Every structure is written in structure tokens, then in C-alpha cells.
């Protein structure tokens, strides 16, 4: 597992887990691995993983069940909100960069459409 | 099982193994020698005393190394046991190893003599059988105490060398350590000799004659002095071990 | 709850040279702490002082509320060089035959807190063969064995001195994983290592040793939040941009 040195690791782990949830690798209502299993998987301290999970609980994305472990929420609204949040975050940087190239919104949308089209053709 | 028993178990096994190997080699050497004599028809009698002497000296040297090693080794110094506990466990197991070595050698010696008799050793055995049981027992005890003094004394030297080495403003190098060891041995021997000699004089041993009663008196005094030195040096060791000594490997 | 480790005004002198001075440290339960410092800064010495392999010149060391050397030894499990400590009288001769299982047996004999089950789990994970001879083990295998033996003791404080030194990347990763897997929740662990970057994710706090003393103790998260720096970058900054005698 490679981390970015200067960002707290619990945030990076939370981010990875969120991506796994919105990509449905961890399905709605499914059980997450135990803290120790996650720690081993991420090669990180159990306290750090615990902290990631705590924030995820506070954000209602996972729900702890006493004596059973942590489960992904079944509330699709929360997941959708999470998805749009992460997508927005990814767009933020790109949008700012494109803007700095003096492109207006329409040009940005057009070039993105073009990019997706090219990419799809490239894949086939 | 208490912690002291745990380490005892390990050290007794270690030293039992050490002595068994020496005894094994000695028996093997005797058998090979006898076979050699049979095959090449050598009829000259061969004394077994030399072999016994070599085995005992080898045993003492290896036990000294082994006893000192325990205090140097992290393996032993990390065991949850007090320094005093480690010390007595170490010395006690060495003591039993010596008894085992001596009894083993005695059995080998008398056994080999019974199977392959030779005039030299038969004479030796006859000379020792002088019906002075007390004298003989005391002689054996003095011998064992002497070996113990060598062990305890070696530990004193080792601990003093490392203490002084640590206090000197130079890092430990092999050459410096050897020189230091020689100096410490000399420095320890001087008071040892002076005190021993003066004690003997105080106990009234001016007139040494060859009469049996005079030899017995000598032996009694030696026993006393050996016990005294063993006790004194043990206390010195315990102090050094508790206050100063560090594991070096 | 009492602290797992408390050091007050520790001082250590050797050969007329002050190695460590005015060392004060206090550690809570359940932490993994990195011990960082240049070569010769005194990391190993500090660990050896805690467990009593070196004799402190002055000061106070308390582990889990106990102060006697003997009691401390039953609360602390530390790594040390197995190859040099397990040399017996027949060192280097053909009579010296210390197999891994002999060492395991020694641990079982002398440490009442040694868990054979836990050792076996780790040995399986790290692929250690108990019939192998200690003197034939590679650096990586020796280190794996050391870690498995050290963690198989059930104690409150673990000291791992350079557990990743001279070991290939795959083995390093395996060792890190086994540390996470087998360190019990309540115990605290101090790890010294030059591979700061690789163990950064493992650590709650870092202790930096500089100028014969503990220069500072920080939480990894704080370093990242406050200075927006990785542990390694921060450590180099403390040492003046790596110009220290590394």
C-alpha cells in the first residue's frame, strides 16, 4: 500500500474504503472486514483504521452492530450523496486546471464529451 | 514452574550435554587406543591417568567459558529472574556438572582399568587406598572447591574487566581487553596471594613437615581458606552483577 | 490506567562519554511508536536500558508500574541478535547445532508468557522451517524468526530494534503485516527503523532522538496536519535537512 506522506493515513484509508463502497465492491448492507483484517490489508496501524471507521460511522456510511462488526448502510441516499461528493472532488481539480487554460464551461463540456467518445472507441 | 526452575532446567541440560560430550570423547579415545594396540600388537602398557587429566582440564576450561557466557549473553540476561537467581543457577549447574564430570571420569578410569589392566594405574589405585577415608573425602572436597574457585574467580575477572573497560575513556578493542585482562588478573592475584599466605601464617602453618598429621592440618586449613574465598568472591560477583554488568552479546 | 512506560531523567554514560542524558518519556497502552534517530544517536542503547541489558548511570525507568529489573523483564519482550546470543561453547564447530526448534524450546522453557500457538501461527505465515539450523539462516529468515519469537510472548511492551534492516522488500512487507496481525490490542510497541517511510503507516507516534536526548515526541497525524509533511520529511527537517551524521 502506497500512501501520500503528507496526508493523514486515516483520511487516505477512509477514501479508499469509500471508493470501494460506491464502486459496489463492498455492497450495500454487507459486512466490512474486521479492524485487524483491514489493518493488515492496508499495512496500517489498527488505531488508524479505527479512526477511519469512526469517521465513516459519524458520516453514517457504515453502521456498527454490537458484537457483529461494521456494516455498509442500506440507505441508498447516503451512498448517492457520497458518490456525488467524491465525483465532485475529482472534478474540482480538473475543472480549475481547464479554467486556467482559458476554456469556458461549454468548451470544457464539449472537450470532455469528445474525450469520452475517443476513449470508448479506443477501448473497442 | 517458577522462573528459577525454568532457567535451572535449561542450564542443567546445557551443562549435562557438555560433560556428556567430554565423557563420550574420552571413552571413544580409550576404545580407539585399545583397538590400535590390539591391531598392531603393541604390548607396552599405557597409563590412563593422562587421559583423565586432559578430560578434567578440558571440562573446567569449557565450563569457565560457559559460565562467563551466561552473563554476557542477552539470551540469559533477558530471562525474568533476578541477577542473584541467575548467578546461583549458573554456578550451581556448573557445580553439578563438575560432580558429574568427576564421577564420570572415576567410572571411566576404574572401568577401563578393570577391562584393560596396566601396572601404572594399578599402582596409583593401590597408593590411594590408604584406608584414610576422611582424608580422601576431604581431598576430593578440596579439589572440587578449588575448581569452584577457578569458576568464581574467572567470573570476578570477567566482571572487573568489563567494569574497568567501561570506565576507561577508550572503546573496547580486542588488544586493549587482553592487556586489561592480564592487568586485572595480576591485580587480583596479588591481594589473593598476600591474604592467603597471611591467613595460613595466622593459622599457624610455619612448621610444614612431611608427617601425615601435618598434611592433614594443611588440608583442613586449605579447605577453610577455599570456602572463605569462594564466599567472598561470590559476594563480590553479586555486587558487580547487580550494579554494573551489561550483556555484551 | 497507568502508563506502560515511564522514563524520568535517564542518563547513561560509557567510556567517559555521555550517550543519553535527561531522557524523559511517557507512553500509553496500545500504541505503536517509531523510534527515529541517526546512527549512533542512542536508539539501541535506549531500548537496552529499558529492558536492563545496559545499566543506567542514573534516572528511573518504570514499565507497567514496576521498577525492579527482574519485574520489568517479565513485562517487556525485546528483539536481540539471536545469532550472537545463541552461540554456545562449541561455537562454529560441527558440534554446534542450534535448530529453530531448539530456540523455540528455550523460549518455552524460560518465558512463562510464551505462547506456542501464537508462535506457530506466525511461523506458518512467515514460512519458517523449524528444522533449520540457526547458523544457516539468511538475514531475512533470522529477522522473521526474531519477530515471531518476540511477538509470541504475551507482554505489555514490545521493543523491536531495526526489524527491517538488510531485508528485501517482500520480506519487509511480510514482517510489517505480521506485526499488525499479531500485536495484541493493549500492548505498546516501540520500533526503531531507518525505513521511516515504510513504517509510517504503522505508527501512532514518533520519538526523535537527537543530541543525546529525546528531541521530541509527536503523533504522526499531528505532523501531517500541522506541517503537511510526511514523517520522513519531518524527521529530515529536524535533523537539519539530512546534514546530520547519517
From TrEMBL, chain A:
Q: Which PROSITE patterns match?
A: HTH_GNTR
The UniProt record lists the HTH gntR-type domain at: 7-75
Q: Show the coiled coil region(s).
A: none
Pfam annotation, one family: GntR
Keywords for the protein's UniProt record, in alphabetical order: DNA-binding, Transcription, Transcription regulation
Looking up SUPFAM superfamilies in the UniProt record yields: Winged helix' DNA-binding domain (SSF46785)
Identify the InterPro entries for this entry: Tscrpt_reg_HTH_GntR, WH-like_DNA-bd_sf, WH_DNA-bd_sf
Any one GO molecular-function label of the UniProt entry: DNA-binding transcription factor activity
UniProt-recorded name of the protein: GntR family transcriptional regulator
Automatic annotation (TrEMBL), chain B:
The domain of life is Bacteria
User: Which residues span the membrane?
Assistant: 18-36, 48-71, 91-116, 136-161, 173-195, 215-241
What keywords tag this UniProt record? Answer: Membrane, Transmembrane, Transmembrane helix
Name the UniProt record assigns to this protein = Uncharacterized protein
Lineage, broadest ranks = Bacteria, Bacillati, Bacillota, Bacilli, Lactobacillales
UniProtKB/TrEMBL annotation, chain C:
Give the source species.
Answer: Companilactobacillus futsaii
Q: Does the keyword ATP-binding apply?
A: yes
> Mind telling me which InterPro entries this protein's record contains?
AAA+_ATPase (IPR003593), ABC_transporter-like_ATP-bd (IPR003439), P-loop_NTPase (IPR027417)
Q: Which GO terms describe its molecular function?
A: ATP binding; ATP hydrolysis activity
PANTHER family in the cross-refs:
ABC TRANSPORTER, ATP-BINDING PROTEIN, SKFA PEPTIDE EXPORT ATP-BINDING PROTEIN SKFE
Q: Does the keyword NADP apply?
A: no
Q: What is the top-level taxon of the source organism? A: Bacteria
Q: What is this protein called?
A: ABC transporter ATP-binding protein
Record key words, sorted: ATP-binding, Nucleotide-binding
Record-annotated ABC transporter domain positions: 5-236
Amino acid at each position: 500500500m502506497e500512501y501520500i506522506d503528507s496526508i493523514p493515513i486515516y483520511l487516505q484509508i477512509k477514501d479508499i474504503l469509500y471508493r470501494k463502497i460506491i464502486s459496489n465492491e463492498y455492497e450495500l448492507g454487507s459486512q466490512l472486514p474486521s479492524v485487524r483484517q483491514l489493518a493488515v490489508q492496508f499495512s496500517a496501524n489498527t488505531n488508524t483504521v479505527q479512526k477511519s471507521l469512526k469517521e465513516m460511522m459519524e458520516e453514517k456510511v457504515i453502521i456498527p452492530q454490537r458484537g457483529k462488526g461494521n456494516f455498509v448502510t442500506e440507505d441508498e441516499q447516503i451512498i448517492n450523496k457520497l458518490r456525488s461528493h467524491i465525483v465532485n472532488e475529482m472534478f474540482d481539480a480538473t475543472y480549475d486546471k481547464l479554467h486556467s487554460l482559458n476554456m469556458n464551461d461549454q468548451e470544457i463540456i464539449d472537450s470532455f464529451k469528445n474525450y469520452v467518445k475517443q476513449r470508448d472507441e479506443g477501448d473497442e | 514452574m517458577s522462573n528459577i526452575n525454568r532457567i535451572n532446567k535449561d542450564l542443567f541440560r546445557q551443562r549435562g550435554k557438555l560433560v556428556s560430550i567430554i565423557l563420550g570423547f574420552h571413552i571413544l579415545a580409550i576404545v580407539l587406543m585399545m583397538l590400535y594396540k590390539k591391531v598392531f600388537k603393541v604390548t607396552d602398557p599405557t597409563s590412563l591417568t593422562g587421559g583423565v587429566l586432559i578430560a578434567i582440564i578440558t571440562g573446567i576450561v569449557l565450563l569457565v567459558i560457559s559460565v562467563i557466557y551466561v552473563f554476557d549473553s542477552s539470551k540469559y540476561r533477558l530471562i525474568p529472574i533476578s541477577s542473584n537467581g541467575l548467578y546461583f543457577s549458573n554456578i550451581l549447574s556448573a557445580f553439578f556438572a563438575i560432580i558429574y564430570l568427576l564421577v564420570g571420569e572415576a567410572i571411566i578410569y576404574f572401568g577401563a582399568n578393570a577391562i584393560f589392566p596396566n601396572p601404572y594405574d594399578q599402582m596409583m589405585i593401590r597408593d590411594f587406598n590408604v584406608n584414610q577415608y576422611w582424608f580422601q573425602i576431604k581431598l576430593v572436597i578440596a579439589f572440587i572447591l578449588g575448581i569452584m574457585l577457578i569458576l568464581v574467580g574467572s567470573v570476578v575477572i570477567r566482571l572487573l574487566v568489563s567494569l574497568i573497560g567501561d570506565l576507561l575513556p577508550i572503546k573496547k578493542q580486542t588488544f586493549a581487553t587482553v592487556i586489561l585482562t592480564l592487568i586485572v588478573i595480576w591485580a587480583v592475584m596479588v591481594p589473593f596471594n598476600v591474604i592467603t599466605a597471611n591467613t595460613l601464617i595466622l593459622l599457624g602453618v610455619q612448621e610444614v613437615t612431611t608427617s601425615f598429621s601435618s598434611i592433614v592440618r594443611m588440608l583442613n586449613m586449605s579447605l577453610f581458606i577455599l570456602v572463605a574465598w569462594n564466599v567472598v568472591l561470590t559476594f563480590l560477583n553479586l555486587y558487580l552483577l547487580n550494579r554494573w554488568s551489561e550483556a555484551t552479546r | 490506567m497507568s502508563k506502560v512506560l515511564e522514563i524520568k531523567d535517564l542518563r547513561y554514560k560509557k567510556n567517559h562519554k555521555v550517550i543519553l542524558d535527561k531522557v524523559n518519556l511517557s507512553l500509553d497502552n496500545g500504541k505503536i511508536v517509531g523510534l527515529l534517530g541517526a546512527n549512533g544517536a542512542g536508539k539501541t542503547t535506549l531500548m537496552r536500558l529499558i529492558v536492563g541489558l545496559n545499566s543506567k548511570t542514573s534516572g528511573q525507568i518504570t514499565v507497567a508500574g514496576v521498577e525492579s529489573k527482574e519485574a520489568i523483564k517479565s513485562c517487556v519482550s525485546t528483539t536481540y541478535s539471536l545469532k550472537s546470543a545463541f552461540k554456545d561453547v562449541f561455537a562454529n564447530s560441527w558440534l554446534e547445532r542450534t535448530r529453530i526448534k531448539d530456540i523455540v524450546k528455550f523460549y518455552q522453557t524460560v518465558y512463562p508468557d510464551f505462547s506456542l500457538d501464537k508462535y506457530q501461527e506466525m511461523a506458518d505465515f512467515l514460512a519458517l522451517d523449524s528444522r533449520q539450523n540457526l547458523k544457516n539462516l539468511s538475514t531475512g529468515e533470522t529477522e522473521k524468526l526474531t519477530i515471531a519469537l518476540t511477538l509470541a510472548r504475551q507482554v505489555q511492551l514490545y521493543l523491536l530494534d531495526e526489524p527491517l534492516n538488510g531485508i528485501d522488500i517482500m520480506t519487509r512487507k511480510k514482517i510489517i503485516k505480521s506485526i499488525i496481525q499479531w500485536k495484541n490490542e493493549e500492548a505498546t510497541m516501540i520500533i526503531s527503523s531507518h525505513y521511516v517511510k515504510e513504517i509510517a503507516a504503522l505508527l501512532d507516534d514518533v520519538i526523535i532522538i537527537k543530541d543525546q536526548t529525546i528531541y521530541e515526541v509527536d503523533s504522526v497525524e499531528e505532523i501531517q496536519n500541522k506541517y503537511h509533511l510526511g514523517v520522513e520529511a519531518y524527521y529530515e527537517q529536524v535533523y537539519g535537512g539530512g546534514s546530520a551524521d547519517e
